[in-house]
Design goal:
Helices cover 32% and strands 36% of the residues. By secondary structure, it is an alpha+beta fold. The protein has a single domain, classed as Bifunctional nuclease domain, CATH 3.10.690. Strands 6-5-4-7-1-2-3-8 form an eight-stranded mixed sheet.
Length: 167
């Protein structure tokens, strides 16, 4: 299992998919080369992810907040998320809960699992074989012009297509 972090979230408007971009946490290489893993998600899922990343709070609980409240009342919490499989453009995840010394694995969409992990600051992992099959190289400039770098990255991710994941 490789620890990963959310590099960026690109929210688009329907019918175009939004994209969550993951990056291995401690991956450092020569010439600032890194790997990224883009995951296409729906607009609603991207909105929930954005709410979690921004730590936004509302007067009434959102669905993910309700789920976390239920876990808390059952004396459980999110232990970690594991992105465990990829099949073409479709990713699969396990939401791992801890209730005392017991671990409980739930099959989950990556977008839901990630939105919950962000809210509880739980670690996110990816199976190494998934990282190898689904990642793309990316080079970060050493003295980046932030706006130009973000625009270049968006262009790179927008040019990706689900077919790029086919073996």
């Amino acid at each position: 299992m490789v620890p990963v972090k959310i590099q960026t979230l690109i929210v688009s408007s329907a019918p175009s998919p939004s994209i969550i971009v993951l990056q291995p946490v401690e991956e450092a290489s020569q010439n600032n080369k890194f790997r990224i893993v883009p995951i296409w998600i729906g607009v609603n899922e991207a909105t929930q992810m954005g709410i979690a990343l921004e730590k936004a709070r509302f007067s009434r609980p959102m669905t993910h907040d309700l789920f976390l409240d239920a876990l808390t009342n059952l004396d459980a919490r999110i232990d970690h998320v594991l992105i465990n499989e990829v099949n073409g453009p479709t990713f699969y995840a396990k939401l791992v809960l801890r209730q005392h010394s017991r671990l409980i694995e739930l099959d989950a969409r990556p977008s839901d699992a990630l939105a919950l992990a962000i809210r509880q600051e739980a670690p996110i992992y990816m199976n190494e074989d998934v990282l190898e099959r689904a990642s793309f190289p990316y080079v970060f400039k050493s003295n980046p012009d932030k706006e130009a770098e973000v625009e270049e990255f968006r262009k790179f991710v927008e040019d990706l297509a689900p077919e790029d994941f086919d073996e």
